Amino acid sequence: MALTHTCTGSQSPSRLLVLVLVVFLCYLPTGAFPEDLAPKIIPKRFVWRGDGGVISCLADPGFPDDFTLIYWLVNRTFVEKAFPEGRVQESEEKAVEVNGQALIQRDLIFQKVSAEDYRSDYTCVVNSPTGIDRFTFRIPRRIAEEHRNERSAGKGTGRRRPRKITKLCKSKKPRSEEEFI
């Protein structure tokens, strides 16, 4: 007596698994991930700290942050190479939570801001298997001048510096500059 088995429309689990893998492998290389999974940078601004300052890069990794890299570039160069003396450094990457959302953060720390820093481009890069996001920042001169004015106002001696004022007049007697101050 021979036993026979008749399949009534169901597929074997291994065949279904192969089909799912083929679809996934065809889908993966196209980079067609939902945009919700791609990392996104949340723009921040430069914050002064004494003579130095900090630019924070806060990002939603989109993908589990174990697979996400966050780093800074200075004029398209790694920070360690651009500032080997360590005047400008990256902080350690840290996980933060804002309004219940898991984010990652890495700061760019300036020990002292110099003239060359205003001419440099600082780019935060967040890279994951689902995409990449970049944010380029330049320290605005206006902010730097306001900061310098605030700091110098606090160090004043109370004495006014003499101003040079030139006035054209039709008087016969020449006047000294001090008369106009």
UniProtKB/TrEMBL annotation:
Record bears the keyword RNA-binding: no
Stretches with biased composition (Basic residues): 157-173
Spans annotated as Disordered: 146-181
Signal peptide: 1-32
Domain Ig-like: 39-144
Presence of the UniProt keyword Signal in the record: yes
PROSITE patterns: IG_LIKE (PS50835)
Record-given protein name: Ig-like domain-containing protein
